[in-house]
Write a structure and sequence with these properties.
mainly alpha, globular, about 75% helix
Length: about 325
Amino acid sequence: METLEGTELCFPQLFNTSCRKPMRPHFESMLIYILLSSISLLTVTLNLLVIISISHFKQLQTPTNLLLLSLAVSDFFVGLLMFFQIILIDGCWFLGDLMCTLYQYLAYIITSASAGTMVLISIDRYVAICYPLHYSTKVTHKRVQVCVCLCWICSVIFQSLVLNDVLKQPGRFNSCFGECIFFTNYIAGIADVIFSFIVPITVIVVLYMRVFVVAVSQARAMRSHIAAVTRQRSVKVTAKKSEIKAARSIGVVVVVFLICLCPFYCVAITGQDNLLNASSAEFVICLYYFNSCLNPVIYAFLYPWFRKSINFIVTLKILQPDSCETNML
């Protein structure tokens, strides 16, 4: 009987203080392993392609793409951090309290910086569409670089304050050996929800709605202008397609962000211990991370230059002399 119980412990030699492994079917464990490993590998690969593309080809180093580069860097590290989440599938953490704290600290910083970068991207698009004549003077390489640096610095400072208790004494909130829990006190958790989710999503929604209104008004203005020299029916179709395209682009950005992040922050406010079992908690965290896999698809795969740069990278043309000067647009 003792042997059977020992096999259920993370550290059998620490019978009284070791965490117990959750009882889970082998098929379910293998499915989770494969799913998380695939998402992690895909996230790292896609974002690495974005990083290489923008960093290598000079023509792609525009202010907007510098923001995409920052987003890709944060999402790349999220993909790497998912390997730590894979370690926790069996319910046991074998890397020690210090690594657990470091994992939590980096995860909070990177995801916070990712949300901040998304806000910067929405501001960039707002200025580009609503104030096109002033875009080149308001949005410069230097200003974008400063904003990106401030975004990362603020994320580090803010999350250091949020995780102050954990950083002071790693593992203080673990109830047994082999446990790695993400813990913040209630006030710090509320502050994190406000500044890492509510404020960013509010800014994104408001700015994109403004962009949508401007895009629709421009489509209607174009329809009115062309109606004087062409048939009304064809113009209506063109204008309608423009409006649908604008609505779809905005909807994808906002809805995907909400779907992936809402469950995590709702749990953060209410307390996951009261609402979720271990499997559900893992699903919420993985869905949160999955947003980093979708970001390069939403922000980069829609651009033709990205497909062209992938071809250069895969065929190793990127290794040719002066390949950085290639016309990618």
